[in-house]
Structure formats: structure tokens, C-alpha cells
Amino acid sequence: MNAETSFSHVALPIFDGETESYDLWAVRMEAYLDALDLWEAVEEDYDVPLLPDNPTMAQIKNHKEKKTKKSKAKACLFSGVSKTVFTRVMTLKTAKEIWDYLKEEYAGDQRIRSMQVINLRREFEMQRMKESETIKEYSDKLLNIANKVKLLGAEFPDSRIVEKILVTLPERYEASIATLENTKDLCNITLAQVLHALKAQEQRRLMRQEGSMEGAFQAKLQINKNGKSRSSNNNQSTSSQSYPPCPHCKKNNHPEKRCWWRPDVKCRKCG
To answer: Which residue in 65, 123, 136, 260 has the fewest CB atoms around it within 10 Å?
Structure first.
């Protein structure tokens, strides 16, 4: 099994016709076709010249290879779209015609894409980390917006994400930010370094909170245990309370009026 045959078993990215997912699909599909050495057939849409009279074996091989690549690229694009999208491109003859149609139809013109970039940048600037959010949740949200901007062809450096995170974090992360300022050059620090440091502090804080909760729970159990012990001791002291010696039976575990050896004692049932 050669490398191309092996890679062809990788799942083909499918475009479902949703405009929001086109840019992501286009990046994945381009990488897929390039790995199969088929992207040239989409990008250039070269013509396959007719074979001359008495062609050489090399000419026949080259002719067949170019023709096969164009057919494979077209087949990949047909297979890489949903049934609804396929009905819109099935009459197109070449892979480049299919690719250009999808780009024009779903990517929008430059003016629309520029407006999308502006809206995404505005959305990014409005983000603030909530008290209930974790570092991962907040950073994932920022990265998702930044990646959408990049897919639209605009620049969005990681340094901008680093700056946004450091400026908008809640006060509980001040210690980590101060440590980073003292040990790192914030102009050159990477996004991975920032997230690693903040996640480490977050993990330590969670461990301390869990330790405090466990300590409080154990203290409560101890209080309940002590309370039960005192109650048990009280019951025992009550049951073993000492009385003056009874004049009738000489025992001291009951008062005289409850002694069954009294001369005036009577049965409660028959009198």
C-alpha cells in the first residue's frame, strides 16, 4: 500500500452548506487535496494536451497522470460536499470551476468578509472573564474568535490574545500576573506560557479549596461525634445514678418509693 492509498483512508472533510463553516472546510479540503498531490489540478486548472503521433512511454505516462489528477480532484470535491450542495455543482466540469463556485457562493466578496472581520474584532474586545469561568473556558472563547478572523484572511497575532487575557482577568489572578511580570518579558512571552502559568495557579487554588472543604467536613463530623458521646455519657450517668440505700431491699439503684419490696406495694393490674 503506497502513501497516497494509505492517506486516502483519512476521513474526507464534508461541507454542509452552512456559510459559517465554509472557511474551515476550505482549509481542511485544501490540505487534503495537497496531501494527495491533487491541489495543482484545482489551483491551476491546467489543460491536458493531446498526445502526439507515436508518443513515447514518458509522454503517455505524463498524459495519463495529469488527466487522472484532474478527475480525482473533481471526485474529491463532489464527495466533500453534502447532497444539497452537490446538486448545485454537479454540472460543473472541472475541479477549479467547483472550487471557485463554492468560494464565491459561500465565502462572500471582500467587502462582506471585511465587515465580518470588523464584527469579530469588536466581539473580541468586548469579552471579559466571568467569575464562574475557568482559564481554559475563557481562553478557548478568545481563541475561537481569533481563529475565525484568521480564516477570513486577516492577521491576528497571539500577542493580542496574551494582552487581552492579562488585562481582563479577575483580581484572583493578580499573583500570577505579578509573577509573570517579574520573571518573563511580557513582550516576548508566548500564549502557551501564559496559559500554563495561570492554569497552574487555578489548579493550586482549587486544591486548597478542596482541602478547606474536607477540613470543615471532618470538623463537623468530630462535633457531631462529640455531641453523641456527651449524650451517650449523660444517658449512662442517668441510668447508673446512685440513690441512698433502700430501707426495704438495701440497694441504691432506685428510690424507696419504687421498690417492689415495700410492704404497701400493690399490683397495677389486679390491685
So the answer is: 260
